Amino acid sequence: MDYMMEDGIKVYVVSLGCPKNRVDTERLLGGLGAEPLAVEYPDDAELVLINTCGFIRPAVEESLSAIFDALGRVEAADPRPVVAVVGCLVSRYGPSLAEEMPEVDLWLDTRHLEEWPVLVAEALGRHPAQFVTRKLSTGPGHAYLKVGEGCSHNCAFCTIPSIRGPHQSVHLEDLVEEAERLVDEGVPEIVVVGQDVTAYGQDIGYEAGLVDLVGSLVNIPGLEWLRLMYLYPAGLSDEVLSFLAELGPPLLPYFDVPLQHAHPDVLRAMGRPFARDPRRVVDRIRTYFPEAALRTSIIVGFPGETDAHFDALCDFVREVRFHHLGVFPYHAEDGTPAATMKDQVGEAIKNERRDRLMAIQAEISSDILESYVGESLEVLVEAPNPEWDGLFTGRAWFQAPEVDGMTYLSSGPDGPLQPGTIIKAEIYEAKTYDLVALAE
Question: Fewest C-beta atoms under 10 Å: which of 40, 45, 164, 270?
Fold first, then answer.
């Protein structure tokens, strides 16, 4: 992402990691009074901003690579830009990073998010914006609504509580105001994100936090799609699902439920808050939403995972038939209980298990998408294809932005499509993870 601020100060941004990080980046840019304008290289900027991820080892390595690349580009720049590194990597390793890379001007962790715009503006010698808004970087199709910070669960493999702290919800009136502003700006889809969205409001006195939240958001005039991500299994009770089922549009019947595994032995070792049979929550969702699109994430190779545990996981995936599945080999992270557990699984076995599970999912995904061929679906138009005139990328209701597949759209009889609009399209081809359609 590249931006230029209102007074002409050039800003080059790298925002890594999850959508929650993206929201932090957008708010920081809004606090600087920034307006989008591409700056192609860091050495052309007056501010180089790198928002990092530090969740697992590959994310740490990606963040460090981005920092080193930027520093290499600005080394000989005259004048030299202010280099600000922010986010989860700083929260996890800040003091040692500052010692190793004195060329970085600002190291800002996630514990002081509200102060980011002020500190960056001061480093630039300017005043921050009086009213902090967001400068969206997601294009016209969607925007993320972050409903809280941190996590209060104690999963044995996870670094998030130590990086972001315990769960802290944003007040409901603030979220509704932000969502209304996004819709007024023309955003058709709001994607609700948080470390555990089902825990929303419990820390600030809302007895039915998720119910209150969704019940308020669905009534925003002009909102076309509302998508919920990061729904912990334990929070999807009959009461919650019954309420959601009664709402209808704009709430999408899309459930992103990070199960992490299927075998109770592994779930208990992981310290998951839902360590019983995860099939129960799947069946519960489908009782209230028979047409539901299900997404989950799975960790393979957790300490102590046997061949039998993995075979049970494969059987579970075959039976449930998720629309979307993310599979990740376990990484032993310093400071987590799982890193010191016995029976660590070898890297080759982890990767082989990931590949086997994704091969199973590829067949499932192909079968599910093939069932849509010949149907007319609503598709949200996202962007034109830069290499093929008349071709656009978009998403059907069961395709979340950035993490799921997409729908390739050809223009129909009415000419070029308009990004940020929802149209009807006929699906005429299915690939492993994507659809191909013709606008009606």
Answer: 40
CATH for 2-124 is 3.40.50.12160
Span 132-151, pLDDT tens digits: 688 888 989 999 999 999 88
* Sheet bearing 189-193, strands edge to edge: 142-146, 189-193, 225-228, 251-256, 293-300, 324-329
CA 378 to chain centroid = 23
Residue whose pair of structure tokens reads 């629309």 in the numeric block: 323
Kindly report the CA angle at 208 between 19 and 275, in degrees rounded to 5?
70
Q: What's the pLDDT tens digit per position in 232-261?
A: 988 899 999 999 999 999 999 999 999 999
**Beta-strand pair 82-87/106-108:** parallel
pTM: 0.93
How many residues in the chain? 440
- Do 283 and 289 contact (CB within 8 A), yes or no? no
CA distance 393 to 161: 36
Q: What residue type is 27 in one-letter code?
A: R
Task: Quote the Cα angle for 183-187-192, to 5°.
Answer: 80
Backbone angles phi, psi at 107, to 5 degrees: -115, 115
Question: Distance between CA atoms of 201 and 208, rounded to whole angstroms?
Answer: 7
pLDDT tens digits for range 197-217: 999 999 998 878 999 999 999
